[in-house]
Amino acid sequence: MQTNSWVPLFPEQASTFAWQVDLLYVYLIIVSIAFSIPIVAAIFYFGLKYREKEKYATPDEMHGSIMLETVWSIIPFVVSMTIFLAGAYVYYNQFRIPDDPAMEVYVVGKQWMWKLQHSTGQREINELHVPVGRKVKLTMTTEDVLHDFSVPAFRTKTDVVPGRYTYLWFEATKPGKYHLFCAEYCGLNHSGMGGFVYVMEQRDFDNWLSGNVSGQTPVEQGRDLFENKLGCASCHAGGPQQRGAKLEGIFGHDVKLVGGGTVLANEEYIRNSILNPGSQVVEGFQPIMPTFKGQVTEEQLVSLVAYIKSLSGAAGTTSSSGDAGAKQTASNSASNSTAASQGNANKQGSNPNAPAANSNR
Ligand code: CUA
Description:
Layout: H1 18-49, H2 66-95, E1 103-110, E2 113-118, E3 123-125, E4 127-131, E5 135-142, E6 147-151, E7 156-160, E8 166-171, E9 176-182, E10 194-200, H3 202-210, H4 218-229, H5 233-236, E11 254-256, E12 262-264, H6 267-275, H7 298-310, H8 336-347
Parallel strand pairs: 1-5, 4-10
Antiparallel strand pairs: 1-2, 2-3, 5-8, 6-7, 6-9, 9-10, 11-12
Dinuclear copper ion (CUA) binds near residues 112, 186, 190 and 193.
């Protein structure tokens, strides 16, 4: 399974965008060679041809050549634009997270291991099992320092940054076992912070899933934290006494804040609201929520985020940075009418997040 890529020395190509990255890379190498060789050859040629033959000779004056200057401007322009366009295409494919991933995995990095959890509950350490031919989305953060989740065979990598969520996606194209690395120096055992991604046929993957104790899913863990362990529900559970902002249906929508701004309710917003509740207070509410900084681990935060997402029926959707907000997936389309009416309500000045007089909870 080593290097059967069509490019010598390259790792195996095992994702849908691997060939794109390789093609761009090979193109860059060819362009570099195509310029380097003539330049070096010209240096030697001119060095010989125009070498000093007579002391203090005055060269002929040269008044430029429109033709020559046009050619040496246009050719590099065209070449650099092809590099730009191809690079933008490859980048867009990689870093625009699909709206409809077939599965989601939560990743928490720490010195020096990767902790992964499937949305069905299975946990893994330094290993990730995925089905072939399905879009897999990773939502990642870290407990300590900056790491970088890198799978060379998939030709993709993304920094995993303290205090925020980053995303990575891939679609594996063939079953196999592929190296997984931390690709950002993160301390003493950085080099040991790796593992394997196991790409399996769907049937084998289903067997693997059912053969592993799933325990609670992230959504269930989040609900447990929300309702019991952290007591969030005492303020956020709805009803006439509701003191905390409504959480149902907010995910993926704009939320009005005290002071007039709005913020998109994405993973980042939920996380920040738990850790820094005073920084983004929802319109119509008092800044009474205590911070949960230091009381919840990153894994618990991931579960809480998953649970609050699930309140909007948005289990499979996210807003990644960049094109957030504009997305609605098919699975989410049922809530589109609600979204639209909420949007209208916003325009009319009422706050959909304010406590409802006739709550349905
Ligand atoms: Cu984690 Cu290097």
